[in-house]
Amino acid sequence: MFGRDKAAATAIPTETAPERSVKEGGKGRPTPSRRESEARNRRPLIGAPAAPAGATRAERKAARQARNAVAREERVKQRTAMASGDDRYLPARDKGPARRFARDYIDSRRNLGEYFLPIALISLVIGIVNVPALRLFSLVLLYGFVLITAVSSYLLRRSLQKQVDAKFGGRNVPGVAGAGTYGMMRSLQFRRGRNPKPQVARGEYPA
User: Which range of residues forms the domain containing residue 67?
Assistant: First the structure.
């Protein structure tokens, strides 16, 4: 009897504290799984919204087609803006009157950087000739032109930035900061290869 009572007493489970569903000091909600996090972060870059969670295959396909249609329309608008200079659809890098002024200023003048590739090609052709004097001349021509272009571009950047600062009221105006560098990089490109396309003729300096 004494042995049975002792066994019964030890068999009675002790009451445990209820299991806490949330750790103390935690976020108050269970941590989402990796799949849930990826699904929540998956968003379209532009245009139509993504299909809701649990959507059918047909609904996901329709949402994808809607996003593709919006993306195509945005690309068409941007290409048109690159050709016409329409500020509404230009990339952020090219937006604003300050950037428009910088483009017009560069496009209205002739810049040494435009002639770098032709000069480099001429130098390469001369350097092929097996004449030491001509090879030396080709090197002097190429490196001399690079040096002159670098100095000219630096002076152009400073001059253009000063003009933009004076015209648009300082660096706090959107598009003003960096306008000199923006114009300098444009001056190193062929006129026909520039984007957005030039909107002024040679000698038609902006007011």
Answer: 57-90
